[in-house]
C-alpha cells in the first residue's frame, strides 16, 4: 500500500493529484503547440474542479497563475496573461492601515472623514471655521441618530480632535448652539413655513375642505 506521504509533494493540494500529474505530463511534451493545447485544457479542467472561482471577475487569470505554481514555474507555454515568477508571488502585501472609523467613530461615515480632510487643507479663516462647525453639527446629528440619545458637545469636540489628529479644534466654543452655523440653520428652518409641520398640516386641511366644496 502506498501512502500519500511517500508520493510526490502537491504544490496546491486543493487541485488534487490528477491535475498535478497532468501538469507534469505537459512539461514533458517536446512540441510547443501540444504543450499550449494541453495547458489550455488543464486550465479548463482546473476551473471545473473549482467552480467557486468563477464568481471572481479575474478567475481565468488566477487559474493560469495556479498552473504555473503547479509547474514550479517551469512550464514553457504561451499564456494569455503575464507569466508570474516565484519572486513576484512571494512578495508580501503591503500592511493595511486600520480604519479610523472604529468603536466610537464608526457611525460618522466616510463623508465626515472627507470633510475633515478638506477642512485641514484650508487656510485659517472664516471659511475654515464655518466648515469645521458644519462638520461638528453633522457629527452630532449622526451620533444622536445612531445612539438614540443626546450627546454632550464636548464629546463631539473630542471626537473631532481625534479624527483630525488634533488639527481641528472647537474647544474654544462652549457649545455648538453658540456657533453661527447652528443658529443660521435653525433660523432658516423656523422662518420657512414649508419646513414647519403645523403649517403643512394647515395647508393640507384647507385644500381638503376646498375640494369638498
UniProtKB/TrEMBL annotation:
InterPro entries: DUF4290. It comes from the Bacteria. Residues 184-213 are annotated as: Disordered. Residues 185-213 have a biased composition (Polar residues). This is DUF4290 domain-containing protein. It comes from Kaistella antarctica.
